Amino acid sequence: MNATVDDQFYSRALKRIYRNLIGLTIAGGIGAAIVKGPLFALGFIVGSLGAILTFGWFHYLASGLSAAATGEEDILKPSTSKRAIAWALGLRYLLFGAAAYVMLKYLGISNVAFLLGLLIVAPAVLIEILTEIIIYART
Q1: CA 20 to 30 Å from 21, out of 67, 118, 126, 130?
Q2: What pLDDT is attached to residue 114?
Q3: What's the rounded Cα separation, in Å, for the pair 86 and 62?
Q4: What residues make up the domain containing 65?
Q5: How far is CA 95 from the centre of its chain?
Q6: How many domains does the chain have?
Q7: Average pLDDT over all residues of the chain
């Protein structure tokens, strides 16, 4: 495989993972609303959106690091400091903690639902793995 084929492969895989994340957020939100009620569903959706945001940040950071390591053009904007990105990734814990506190204390939204929403990246990646196994088993 050459570089362009690898790039296309990973690009398609990332698109499928993002689609899986969105699909799981919608399906999980609907399922949570039916089973546990709208506040549980809201907590799940907020957690899922946080997981999608974090996945996007890590994807952005990994792309910039791989471009720097291979000597390709850095995709990170020159105005975006790598230190600022590291701080943003670190501060997400504070952000998620504050969101969980506000949801539990003031809004009555379940922290369990929020935490379940944060975990949707794992099933999204597992779905992608199974998709690749099925696609490449036929070829």
Answers
A1: 67
A2: 87
A3: 12
A4: 3-137
A5: 16
A6: 1
A7: 83
